[in-house]
Amino acid sequence: MQIILANPRGLCAGVIRAIDIVNKLINKYKKKIYIKHEIVHNKFIVNKLKQKGVIFVEKISNVPQGEIIIFSAHGVSKKDKKEAKIKNLKIFDATCPLVLKIHSKVIQASKKGKEVILIGHSGHPEVIGTMGQYTNNNAGIYLIQTTKDIKKLKVKNEQNLKFVTQTTLSVENTNYIVKKLKKKYPEIKNSNKNDICYATTNRQKAVKILSKKTDIVIVIGSRNSSNANRLAEIVHNLGNNVKLVDNEKDVKKSWFKNIKKIGITSGASTPEILVNQVIKKLLTFGIKDIKEIYGKKEEISFKIPKKIDLVNLTI
Ligand code: 0CG
Ligand code: SF4
User: What are phi and psi of 103, to 5 degrees?
Assistant: First the structure.
């Protein structure tokens, strides 16, 4: 048996930045820190931060007056920002800059009275945050998840429409939805094809190559991670065996009967230590050979605001 690793895989620039912000604040304030939602969708990271005393909340109302709050990498709605300000919380924003870019597109559209169609998954925090940037009651923002939703969709003015997407969707599926959307609304505008981020795109390309060279693919990532789920979905749709695991404890020897090549990849919120632990376990099954497929080199990194305690919030 041989292990083949996908490349790129694992942590993206937005996740690294978010975790850095949290750790810097823990070291600086040495007091209780609240985070709105899991900072990123990874059990290992969230548990590590819990051990350091971080408290994760789903509602701003659960944060006591005047305490420190960090917004997760997925972003929050204007309503949450406002509530945090009113409560006099000390606010830090770990929203990925690529998500913030989408927020500003929605804010601009809202100001101009343009209707917005958001392609994304209902209930995902990024979708809630992006929808929550739109404040124009005379126009509107609409969430669509599938091409079926396009059929049902009714807008007020077909000539003044814009679409945006969640950052961690399937590239292939989203392009298909966009195609159908443009068919119904030929006037719809967007500066680019979609808003799927570089990390999602690169990991999806890499897992496709990996899947074709292997008999099973292990995707390391948490159940609630959209981008990790998309990687598993791609492998499944290619007709290959796939397992989504949080860590090496989830890996079962019985999966590898008659298997020659095991592929490994990991989501944008999965630290490399978890990949190493899975490899370590696989080695105990008698695997001797490990190789890595080299893919697109990623050189993107996002700076942390220098004055980390001066996050300007425009509401
Ligand atoms: O992939 P999603 O958007 O669910 O988020 P995750 O935290 O897993 O990874 C990137 C970010 C933010
Ligand atoms: Fe940013 Fe993409 Fe990473 Fe999300 S997955 S944090 S959008 S770089």
Answer: -55, -45
Ligand 2 mutation target, pool 164, 168, 296, most atoms within 8 A of CB: 168
Domains defined for the chain, CATH in brackets: 2-10+198-292 (3.40.1010.20), 13-96 (3.40.50.11270), 98-184 (3.40.1010.20)
- Model confidence at 306, in pLDDT bands (50, 70, 90)? confident
Which of 96, 121, 201, 304 should be mutated for ligand 2, with most atoms under 8 A from CB? 96
For residue 76, pLDDT over 80 is answered with yes
Cis peptide before 186 (omega within 30 of 0): no
Task: Return d(Cα 260, Cα 269) in angstroms, integer.
Answer: 28
Give catalytic residue positions: 126
pTM: 0.97
Which atom in ligand 1 lies closest to the alpha carbon of residue 40? 7
Residue-wise pLDDT tens digits, 117-142: 999 999 999 999 999 999 999 999 99
